[in-house]
Amino acid sequence: ERWNRKGTKDPIKPSTMKSYKSGISKLIKELKVEENNYDFCFDCESTINHINNSSRSDNSKKTIYSYLEIFMRGLSPDWQGLDQLKKYNEEKKKIQNTIDSTAQKNKEEYGMALTDNQKKNIIDKKDIEIYMKTLTNKIKDINKKDNYNEEDLKQYTIFVLLNTWLRLPIRNELWNMYFIRDNKYTLDSDIQPEKDKNYFIMTKSSGYIVRNVYKTADSKKNGGTKIYELESDLLSIYKKYFKFAGINISPKYKKLQSVFPYFQDYENGNMEISRMISNEFKKETGKNIASTLLIKIIYQLTEEGKKSLEYLKWLSLSRGTSIDVLSQNYL
Fold it and tell me: pTM for this one?
């Protein structure tokens, strides 16, 4: 079970448990435990020692502890009183303090809040431009094909996501975005799509990304539906991608379609986006760049004239977080 924002309990869904089990799958292999034996979660001293002494980055250790906390809530109906959960939370806070201290030190030195691992993998504008040029040429070749394979779909998905992030530096929530054709749609439409999904809405001349499901969507201050109208060049990229991926954009076609079918077999596309982007940059640049570091780099590539309060407000809206948090963790 878990607490919702109303202060009542919601059950943790089997799909959620499956996702978080996937998140700790590497830890399970390292501990060499039998399948479906989760006693190690409750043997917290041994598990904490293993995690803290592993070669994981501080961010990865913090993430593992977060996964364990949520996973254990699904394992035990009496999770609220578990000492193990408190200990995992304490370790997570210690690591967060270390991350914050390191980020502040690196911010003073490099002008950007970075972990030591991110500092090793930082790249500059030239590296991004070279990579995007290489990727653009790959897509041109893919567009010439009569048939595509899984790798082609993966490369095209990365191309579209990166071009979106360069203009709209959001998190990984676009993996579950659905296509809608609605020629009558406007930002002020009285009729809006259901709130349980994210959407790409296309009209005759415009395209809109409508986000309802993201990390801080329930926040009274920073949540709610967020709508972004695409620039013409980004809309053109999406239109070519829709043709390639077989997305039917006819107004007569009413069936809901996934914008990124590459992720349709994944329980948690958020994790897969990070893995996919990180692996791709590792292959092309030799650097381990996940989506969070990429967003930090994108902000630093922004022209000085855009680094104004208005730009910060827009970036804050995109990330669904306050300017204070944004300044502390991203800039």
Answer: 0.72
